[in-house]
Amino acid sequence: LMDHHSGQVLAQRNGDKPLAPASLTKLMTAYVLFAQLKAGKLRLDDEIAISPQAVKARGARLFLRAGTTAHAEELLRGMIVVSANDAAIALAEHVAKNETGFVTEMNVTARALELRQTQFVNATGHDEKGHISTAHDLARLTSALIRDFPEHYKWFAQKEFTYQEITQHNHNALLWRDLHVDGVKTGHTRSGGYCLSASASRDGMRLITVVLGARDDGARVSAGQKLLEHGFHHFETRLLYAADV
Fold first, then answer.
1. Do residues 200 and 181 touch, judged by C-beta distance below 8 A?
2. Which of 29, 170, 204, 240 is most buried, by the most CB atoms less than 10 A from its CB?
3. Catalytic position from the list 23, 133, 143, 197
4. Cα separation, 194 vs 157, whole angstroms
């Protein structure tokens, strides 16, 4: 559990233990893509070619078809809301020609954000040797995403997404349980278990919680909610001194 504005860790257990991050990986995928948007190297209305490699992506997907195109905004929202792996690969290939090149950019960005125990091997989060992060690093990444790209962070609050007449729902159950929660991401793999990064804002205080390796969806949701309630109940944000006084 971390305070967004100060970066102060308010509660933790094994917060710096390297673990498989599952689809919380896409927090970094999104961060790199948002940076491309900000730099003008990617546009929301860009037509993205869908490759056979993207279509073959395992796990959650938008059911993209090879040889077709889709707008970058559609793919971004699909990747964020329903964790679509085919959308993530298509965007990575568009930005860096292939997933390997994109992953290199992910790791460069991780170093720039001082995520010292994080190493990415793919852009989607599927289990792969050496693909690791920690709850602390992922909380800091979540905070950076909210801080640096507030205009795009709103997509993480979207409860469902429809593409080609197929509607899929966001797996972050806290969006329904707690009105103060406005994002961000869930994930699940065999090695990573059930994972969650969530953020909530209340009375000027924003908290970020990360849960890794939970046994099931109920456990990750319960743990995340308890951590947020603990933070809002036992801590508060106060201005001690104004700047330049």
1. yes
2. 29
3. 23
4. 19
